[in-house]
Design a protein that fits this description.
elongated; 6 helices; about 65% helix; two-stranded antiparallel ribbon; mainly alpha
């Protein structure tokens, strides 16, 4: 994590927790989809988008800085410490070239919709029937972000940098 410009590297345990969390989100989405829990699905999609953008930032920074270090603030949040909001993550992903302006705007709009559903469902005319198109848009964004992360991992392997690089030294 960065405090006063100083990088605090993530631990292996923090990375493992983050990766397990991403896997758990995919399972939760599967369950929400099969049970017809649309609001839950929307919340999970928003979390998955945030997680994939965070991973994209980790990979992109490792490429540009030619390191395997992981900035802890990207993958961990401890009580009482600095953290990155979803919107901050979106802005960082845009400014660091992980996503383009169009995808940034799409993710922002979807997040606005998520907030309407979560925070204003009882206070507006929103109906459950209006949610499927947003969930379909989130699925498209999820697939696009997944491809971006995959491409960044492939780039790390190609350049032999970062956590995806293959160590060819003898054991």
């Amino acid at each position: 994590m960065r405090f006063g410009g100083v990088l605090v590297k993530a631990t292996t345990a923090e990375l493992q927790n983050f990766v397990r969390g991403m896997g758990a989100l995919r399972l939760l989405l599967f369950k929400a989809n099969h049970s017809g829990s649309l609001i839950e699905g929307m919340v999970v999609y928003a979390a998955m988008a945030d997680g994939l953008l965070r991973m994209g930032l980790v990979l992109q920074r490792q490429i540009s800085q030619k390191t395997s270090d992981i900035d802890g603030i990207l993958i961990s949040q401890k009580s009482g410490t600095s953290f990155l909001t979803e919107r901050t993550v979106y802005k960082l992903a845009l400014s660091e070239g992980v996503i383009d302006q169009t995808l940034f705007e799409t993710i922002g709009s979807l997040y606005d919709r998520r907030n309407e559903v979560v925070h204003k469902f009882l206070l507006t005319n929103l109906t459950y029937e209006e949610l499927p198109p947003t969930l379909e848009q989130y699925e498209v964004v999820f697939k696009r972000l997944y491809r971006i992360v995959y491409a960044l991992e492939a780039r790390q392997i190609e350049l032999a940098v970062g956590m995806s690089a293959i160590d060819e030294r003898p054991p």
